[in-house]
Design goal:
This protein has 541 residues and is of the alpha/beta class. α8 crosses α13, α8 crosses α14 and α10 packs across α15. The longest helix is centred in the last third of the chain and has 25 residues. It is globular and about 65 Å long. Strands 8-7-6-9-11-10 form a 6-stranded mixed beta sheet, sandwiched between helices. A 6-stranded mixed beta sheet has the order 22-21-12-13-14-23, with helices on both faces. Strands 1, 2, 3, 4 and 5 form a 5-stranded antiparallel beta sheet that branches. β13 and β14 form a beta hairpin. Among the domains are: 91 residues, Beta-grasp domain (Ubiquitin-like (UB roll)); 178 residues, 2-Layer Sandwich (Nucleotidyltransferase, domain 5), CATH 3.30.420.480. The chain has 15 helices and 23 strands. Bound molecules: FE2/S2 (inorganic) cluster. FE2/S2 (inorganic) cluster binds next to loops. The site of FE2/S2 (inorganic) cluster (FES) has 13 residues, from loops.
């Protein structure tokens, strides 16, 4: 039951207010489990249980988004509910998301750093490599003398309370005190990860000598305390793209008192240091054939290596692939459906953690749509069909309903007070928009390099989604060209791996600098060709 995961130990009694929006009350935003739109009234996911106090009446949007059972249990959407006087709230438990901490290689002995000064050999030396992602943060602690991995720790990026994608962070940073709030919460987060890594491996934090950090350009601007607003508007000029060297305490980190921080270089506003790190980790430039690096998240970043050149572009794919901006969407965590398939005319769902299905994560969304296309329930134009097609083997039409003019397919029909689980027509449209953007980006890279899709022999799929999905579904849905079936390989957390390599080696840091300058970034922001290809690529299958 969706209202059963509210945590009795996570309650808040507010001060007195006069009809103020719940989301804006101090301490509320940070405690809400999901707020992908960052309080912009568009995602409908910011659930809070009201235990006592006076609230505005339930809005039409809340009636649409919340089940009767949720409303009966006092659950409201924080963006739509205003309060008067003091109020007592309870928040849902924050589940641990599936975070990609693995790198394609574990042994970095060949990268271990020499002592430049030939100095004190009794002194142990450690370093931390960190991947600062928009959604998650991962830190990997290493012994710099042996190249041995000591510990890997991860967290959800606390900035997700301010919105899931980089645009919402950019917007929040321009509010009064916004920049400071974003920077402080990520510095605290890095300190927590460093402390945990040190505590779990018995390494005093004073023995951390170096920290190498990678991330997209917006994340690194915020970390450095540089306002990222110019990255959100034309001409999208970053304040810096080259590497940053700074003492940990000057950056604002409190835990590693002696460490030197190295922030990896970016190529542009849209192709960040995480992609530079990915190019290093996948040895993209060493490929003998044309090869691609593809990072799918709220943005789709792609780099094509062809004829000794690196072509790159970034397309906004929206948060659908992270399980957000879809009606029953959620992060890939316990309770999320991540696999869907038909067997003997039965629809099967795999749920992370083996729990009751609570929602669909990105891979669950892709697999649902793929399965419904195969079953003849979703047409190539994305239309959810009410009338079964003649060649359909089983009549699923009872699972298709229309509510408030929105068609839904029920993966788990509602029962009693249970909300059930569905995919809506609008969710399928979100996926089509994602597909259109990725296909158009790939096509423009191929055109820039003057090659055909069939000539690309290796596709390195990086990022969380790339490693948790069956890559075949991307080809089945037409997101990737059919010639790439069998050529797609997961590259694990290539950003973290690149940061580890940069932590260990001066040569790699030089290479990172060269790569950041070598990449030719396509500007798609005003490209008519992109728009045309985008619209042309939205059909499925
Ligand atoms: S609607 Fe409240 S955070 Fe999105």
């Amino acid at each position: 039951m969706i209202y059963n995961n509210y945590d009795i130990n996570n309650e808040l009694t507010t001060e007195q207010y006069e009809w103020v929006r719940l989301f804006d009350l101090p301490g509320v935003r940070e405690r809400i489990t999901d707020s992908p739109c960052g309080g912009e009234n568009s995602c409908g996911k910011c659930r809070v249980m009201v235990l006592a106090g006076e609230c505005s009446t339930v809005t039409a949007e809340e009636k649409h988004r919340l089940s009767a059972a949720e409303l009966e249990h006092g659950i409201r959407l924080a963006c739509y509910c205003r309060i008067k006087g003091t109020i007592k709230l309870r928040f849902a438990q924050k589940a641990v998301p599936q975070i990609l901490v693995h790198t394609a290689r574990d042994n970095f002995n060949d990268f271990k750093t020499g002592r430049m000064d030939g100095g004190d050999h009794t002194q142990r030396r450690f370093g931390m490599a960190m991947d600062l992602g928009t959604t998650t943060v991962v830190g990997s602690l290493f012994n710099l003398d042996t190249g041995q991995k000591m510990q890997v720790c991860s967290r959800l990026n606390p900035q997700t309370a301010f919105g899931l994608d980089v645009m919402s962070r950019i917007n929040y940073s321009s509010r009064e005190g916004g920049m400071e709030a974003l920077q402080n919460c990520i510095l605290d987060n890095l300190d927590e990860i460093i402390s945990e890594g040190c505590a779990r491996s018995g390494v005093p934090s004073c023995e951390i000598e170096k920290i190498a950090i990678t991330g997209n350009t917006v994340m690194l601007h915020i970390l450095a305390g540089v306002n990222p607003s110019p990255l959100g508007r034309f001409p999208y000029t970053p304040a810096f793209t080259s590497a940053v060297h700074i003492a940990a305490h000057d950056l604002g980190l409190k835990v590693p008192d002696n460490a030197a921080v190295y922030m990896m270089p970016s190529a542009s506003a849209f192709i960040g240091a995480d992609i530079v790190a990915g190019i290093l980790a996948t040895d993209l430039e060493q490929e003998t054939d044309h090869a691609l690096l593809l990072d799918l998240g709220t943005n789709g970043e792609m780099v094509l290596f062809s004829n000794n050149r690196l072509w790159a572009c970034s397309v906004a794919v929206g948060p659908a692939l992270e399980g957000m901006n879809i009606e029953c969407g959620m992060r890939a965590e316990a309770g999320a459906v991540d696999r869907v398939w038909l067997e003997n005319e039965t629809l099967n769902l795999h749920v992370i953690g083996g729990l009751d299905a609570r929602g669909l994560c990105g891979s669950g969304l892709l697999e649902t749509v793929g399965t419904l296309i195969k079953a003849g329930i979703v047409a190539a134009n994305g239309r959810l069909l009410k009338t079964p097609q003649p060649d359909q083997t089983f009549d699923w039409s009872k699972r298709v309903t229309e509510i408030d003019k929105s068609r839904r397919f029920w993966l788990k029909p509602p029962r009693g007070q249970e909300r059930g689980l569905f995919i809506s027509q609008n969710d399928i449209r979100q996926l089509q928009l994602t597909k259109g953007a990725i296909c158009a980006g790939i096509e423009l890279l191929l055109r820039a390099a003057a090659i055909q899709a069939r000539q690309v022999k290796a596709i390195n799929l990086t990022g969380a989604l790339g490693n948790y999905i069956n890559p075949g579904i991307l080809v089945e849905l037409g997101i990737l060209p059919p010639e790439w079936q069998g050529r797609i390989r997961p590259a694990c957390n290539s950003a973290l791996q690149g940061a580890i390599m940069a932590l260990m080696s001066d040569d790699i840091r030089d290479q990172a600098e060269q790569i950041s300058r070598k990449v030719t970034c396509l500007d798609l922001t005003a490209s008519e060709e992109f728009e045309k290809l985008f619209v042309r690529s939205m059909s499925l299958g």
